[in-house]
């Protein structure tokens, strides 16, 4: 009896220990602790379509497809062209060994497969192009018809009722215009101003053309004149004939602002500081008067 009771106690203790130590697996997560600073702390119902899913981005760039059936070129969909680019072998060869014959048979089978693939490829590509062109033409015609329909359709009733009140004289397409009593005088003045500007432009073009004509006497237009000018400039005896060492020694220094102001003021007062300056000023004035009288550069 005592032995049976001790055995029963041991069995009960063993069952209790196994029951307390066993951990069952579960897919239900425990209580998640969300801090107050988290956006999920307050449960807000979400919209059915919260995110807009975009198309997946694939790495790399596909090359542009070749345009096989080009307009104005040879039509590659005809039976004549396909027969010309995939001709059948015209001759047969004889081989001595069995290995050479087997290799030749394998090559002939591969060539036949290539010819068949080229024929089927050209035919199917042409069929796909025809279908694509038909779809494109149908889509274009539909868009044009829809565009014309929307342009010429009458005004909708809701737009008519919600539009602000506009008088007939201010509506689009109205031929009525506001009165303008000074329009004729304004148009005449604008026309006279435009004609004056055009006359000034024509006179400037005429003067430029005459100046070009007068300066053309010094242009080099022949090979003999070019050779003569080159020989003159690149002559070895240049420094003996012309002792000047630079353009400043040959033609003098350019006028300064002070010298030009002095000449201008002395010419206005009538007391030239130097005789040469007065003579040059008189020559310039006479030349300008002659150009005004003749109507062109001299």
Helices and strands in order:
Blueprint: H1 2-21, H2 79-85, H3 98-152, H4 157-162, H5 183-215, H6 223-233, H7 238-241, H8 247-251, H9 257-269, H10 275-294
Describe what this molecule looks like in 3D.
With about 300 residues, this protein is an all-alpha fold. Helix content is about 60%, strand content about 0%. The chain contains ten helices and no strands. The chain has helices at about 1-20, 80-85, 100-150, 155-160, 185-215, 225-235, 240, 245-250, 255-270, 275-295. Residues about 1-5 and about 15-25 have low confidence and may be disordered.
Short description:
This protein is mainly alpha-helical. The protein contains ten helices and no strands. The radius of gyration is 51 Å and the shape is extended.
Return Rg in Å: 51 Å
SS-based class: mainly alpha
The topology string of helices and strands comes to HHHHHHHHHH
**Biggest sheet, in brief?**
none
Proportion of residues in helical segments: 55-70%
Mean pLDDT: 80
Euclidean distance between termini CA atoms: 153 Å
How would you describe the shape? Answer: extended
How many DSSP-defined strands? 0
Oligomer description = single chain
Q: Tally the helices: what do you get?
A: 10
pLDDT < 50 runs, ≥5 residues: 1-5, 14-26
Task: Tell me the strand percentage band.
Answer: under 5%
